[in-house]
Design a protein that fits this description.
Helix content is 44%, strand content 11%. The chain has helices spanning 17-25, 53-58, 83-90, 103-116, 125-130, 132-136, 153-156, 159-169, 180-185, 187-198, 220-235, 244-248, 259-268, 270-283; strands spanning 7-11, 30-32, 69-73, 95-100, 175-179, 215-217, 249-251. The N and C termini lie far apart (41 Å). The relative contact order is 0.16.
Length: 284
């Protein structure tokens, strides 16, 4: 019988969760789901990689008595309206790790991520931002977008409000907030803070390579084939791919935002920035 998860990395996307997950999965006392982002509990979103309870339980069959912390990382749980409530019903003492970053930077990175995974088909962030109302009404949606809510960049990146909502449903002592800015400033310190929170020993890690840096794809057609193959692989329970995604990857620096558009973004996210700042100051 598999053991059950006792901690969850809730997100947010493009906030360093992949790096943290990679560091933690190498820790001898931590077990992380071999499928990152199962999104089993976000029942209101269409990106669930695992929907069957038995398959979800099998994700943790490799956990043993040596693993004090057993968890998974699904980056849209924080955004989901149902995920945390679903987790709380099943895992009443679960601990949560939430990673955040400046909302303007997150929105820009999320747009490029959506482009890479074919959720987004607009060739500029400013144009995609201006389409949010149309898309919320179900118009001008990309053909390959699995979940239209992921194109609502303002809502998805309103991290101050999303974190406040989490605190309304979960006691603060069961939530660890890790700002990406702090992770960049001193990754060793933040990693050890996570280990302390999970009540596992310091494994002596002294290198903290970043993961999931900004990338694009060489061929959109090949990317569609890779995506279809990934969905089939996930349905069959095959955890590892064949490296085709890496072959299609290429470095892709983000485009420069115009001064006017950047000012618009900063105005749109000013309250969210203030909320995050207040929460960061309270735990500094």
């Amino acid at each position: 019988m598999s053991r059950q998860p006792n901690f969850f990395i809730l997100g947010a996307p493009k906030c360093g969760t992949t790096s943290l997950a990679h560091w933690l999965e190498a820790h001898p006392q931590v077990f992380l789901s071999p499928i990152k982002e199962p999104h089993y509990y976000s029942t209101d979103l269409a990106n669930r990689n695992i929907t069957d309870s038995r398959r979800y339980a099998r994700l943790f069959k490799g956990a043993s008595d040596t693993h004090r912390a057993i968890g998974e990382a699904s980056t849209w749980y924080l955004f989901s309206n149902e995920a945390v409530a679903n987790i709380e019903r099943k895992h009443t003492d679960a601990r949560y790790i939430v990673m955040t970053r400046d909302p303007v930077a997150m929105a820009h990175s999320l747009y490029h991520h959506n482009r890479r995974v074919l959720h987004e088909d607009n060739d500029s962030f400013e144009s995609a931002w201006n389409l949010q109302k149309e898309r919320a009404a179900g118009r001008q949606l990309p053909r390959n977008c699995k979940e239209p809510a992921f194109l609502q960049y303002h809502a998805a990146c309103s991290l101050g409000s999303l974190l406040q909502r989490l605190y309304q449903h979960v006691p603060t002592e069961r939530v660890l907030h890790v700002p990406l800015e702090w992770m960049h400033e001193d990754p060793a310190r933040e990693y050890r803070r996570v280990l302390s929170y999970l009540e596992v020993e310091d494994d002596g890690r002294d290198t903290f390579p970043p993961a999931n840096e900004a990338r694009g794809h060489r061929s959109r057609f090949l990317q569609r084939l890779i995506r279809c193959g990934g969905e089939v692989r996930m349905a069959l329970g095959i955890k590892k791919g064949y490296g085709l995604a890496r072959l299609n990857d290429k470095p892709q620096p983000k485009e420069e935002l115009s001064t006017t558009f950047r000012e618009e973004l900063e105005s749109a996210f000013s309250q969210e920035r203030n909320k995050l700042k207040t929460m960061m100051e309270s735990q500094a």
